[in-house]
Amino acid sequence: MNSERKILKKTKKDYNLIADHFSSTRKYPWKNLEFLFKDIPEGGKVLDLGCGNGRFYEFLKEKNIEYVGIDKAEKLIEKARKKYPEADFRMADALDLPFENNYFDFVISIAVFHHMPSEKIRLKFLNEARRVLKSGGKLKLSVWDLLSTDKRIYLRNPKEKLTGKIGIRDILLPWKNDKGEVATERYYHAFKKKELEKLAEKAELKNIEVFEKGEKHKSTLFLFAKK
User: Phi, psi at residue 31, to the nearest 5°?
Assistant: First the structure.
């Protein structure tokens, strides 16, 4: 198994492992991300790419839209289905989306892209998102701005035990349970704005906009683009 597949497999395993605690700490959608959903019109088709426990469906459930949430972690999908039985949640891989070309008006992906372990995998992620978007459809993607948060301390000592080949801005961040014990360490890539722009360009996306938003030490990078 190569290092990319190993990281992807570990990420799925990690989220299944922490699914209960993850969902207990994320029962509701973050209000500061509601702006991502504001311009979705009635009748729109939306893919929530890496939906987790489905909490961002809250922003759309009162609208007449076609919503699909996908995630690789089956335990998170189970939680999403239990809380929102009326919504369409599916287990699926962001790198091999089970949808036809030109289907969605919007693809929204919150805090998922930073788990993609190489430029090749990141481009595959963006190319799949682009493929399922209609012409003129919008991609809205967020990643943690790890280079401007207190998490940057982990960049000083990147761990290599996972693959033996973790890059200079690839890190493992601990997830602690209710007792303060480290349950696992999740893989993250710390993006720079220019890096996101170049990836979007390589994926042949248009109207590319990368910006930072949030409080000090809790900021997020956003990539907006169109097909």
Answer: -60, -30
Find the helix or strand (DSSP H, E) in which 9 lies.
helix 3-17
Which residues, at least 6 apart from 196, have a Cβ–Cβ distance to it below 8 Å? 143, 210, 221, 223
Q: Which domain holds residue 10?
A: 3-27+41-226
Alpha-carbon span 32 to 194, nearest angstrom: 24
Looking at residue 57, which CATH number applies to its domain? 3.40.50.150
Instruction: Name the helix (H) or strand (E) containing 20.
Output: helix 19-25
pTM of the model: 0.92
Name the pairing type of β-strands 104-110 and 133-144: parallel
Residue type, 161: K
Render pLDDT for 139-169 as a digit per residue (tens, 0 to 9).
Answer: 999 999 988 755 544 554 444 444 444 567 8
Cα 204 to Cα 208: distance, rounded to the nearest angstrom: 10
